[in-house]
Amino acid sequence: MVEMKLKYPGLIRDVLPSGNLRWLVRVEGNPRKRITLMVGPDHPQFHEAYAAARVGVSLRPTKTPVERAEPGTVGWLVDSYIGHLDRLIAAGQASPLTMKQRKPFAEELKAHTSTSPRSYGRAYRDLPMAIPQEELARFMDSFIATPGKAINMRKFLRAMFKWAVQRKYCTSNPAAGLEVDYKSQGGATPWTLADLEKFRACHPKGTQAHLTLSLFMFTACRIGDAITLGRANEIKLNGEPWLGWQPEKKGSSYVEIPILPPLLSAIRSQSVIGPTYLLTGYGKPFRSPEGLRNRLKKWCTEAGIPDRSSHGIRKAAGHLLSINGASQYEIMAVHGHANASTSEVYTRGVERQRLAASAASKLARMDW
Predict the structure, then answer these.
(1) What is the pTM of this model?
(2) What 8-state DSSP symbol labels residue 119?
(3) Most-buried pick from 39, 202, 298, 308 (CB within 10 A)?
(4) C-alpha radius of gyration, the chain, whole number
């Protein structure tokens, strides 16, 4: 037995005849009493187990979700994949926003109950990870009323099973051929001119509420970008003030747009100046999009439009741009869209109106 002098007094490193290694701790005040640790120095709960042993308590480490799950089950696969994402984030190879988006889908998948005759009523977490594609298709049918959620769940399933196949946990990806045929109900409701007037009447210039509306309206930014924009993003082009930023959403193009007079006036009218334009009631930047989302919800309720959202302002900006003659590609530049099809939703209806008006004008000139 060889005592290893680290920064942990009383810690003993013991090599057994079999070659295996174990760690023991002398109890403080009673050096003859030694407690064998259940984990080594590389375990995340080692320090806690060592501290307990020094006062004479043998602590069993809490099992991780992967350790608790039955190997080969959906629960084990999901927890293993989430653990992989955790490691990617720790290494700076993935965004914490990815985890925030995917974690709820992981929990929902594990909790869902099977509709297959042989496993009817059992939670997915306890079933084999090789889910038949027909079972996954029935699972996706539970999202008929929420097409956007269905698309995101499919992305999660495809990514997870692709990861599992590459590591030979699974032999095939049952989510690869899944289709989502549900029609979108249009998502967030675009703000009307009446909505904008109500909000501005309730929250005049100089308030954070007014600045928030102005920032969304005249930049068409997403809420995740809104909480980070500030004077550091201001640039000068041809002597005029512009904003430049890289949207956080994966695949988005870099955005540079002029700061129009209404937005510039809203920015300069603020009495409290911080590292970001939008600040909490304590004069600090918002820690998360959810914080600003909740605050905006309160402001909308006060203005008598409780069912409006920040994304609805973004959609309103897109529609107004189109109505006022902006092309599909001009809207792409403002919204940071990388694909033309994404911005087409704003121009399609307006373009049809223009074509209808043009066609009708030709009928009006007919000699009837």
Answers:
(1) 0.51
(2) G
(3) 308
(4) 29
